């Protein structure tokens, strides 16, 4: 028998051996029919540990926040568009297809002066 942590393995084929049922004198390897005496399990303590992330929880997921930083990114094209916040007449624009293909695209604007952002559905 080979012991690794709290697990017992068959010495012939390496298969994980099951725990003996009550009253059994031997444990039979399911793969090669090796017989291990049930006394090998006497005073045997089984310890199981799980990492907290091993079982994802919907509540735990809601507690997590993700922050994205966009230090260097493509600002888009500088166009003549009036900012609704400060009235500046230039903004950067980017066009994205967010809705279904048969509908128009969405244009995202960012004011070149105050960095206010807004969008327009095309």
TrEMBL record:
One Pfam entry name: Zn_ribbon_TFIIS
SMART domains in the record: ZnF_C2C2
Entry annotated with the keyword Zinc: yes
InterPro entries from the UniProt entry: Rpa12/Rpb9/Rpc10/TFS, Zn_ribbon_RPA12_C, Zn_ribbon_RPB9, Znf_TFIIS
Zinc finger regions, C4-type: 10-32
Protein family: Belongs to the archaeal rpoM/eukaryotic RPA12/RPB9/RPC11 RNA polymerase family.
Protein name, entry field: DNA-directed RNA polymerase subunit
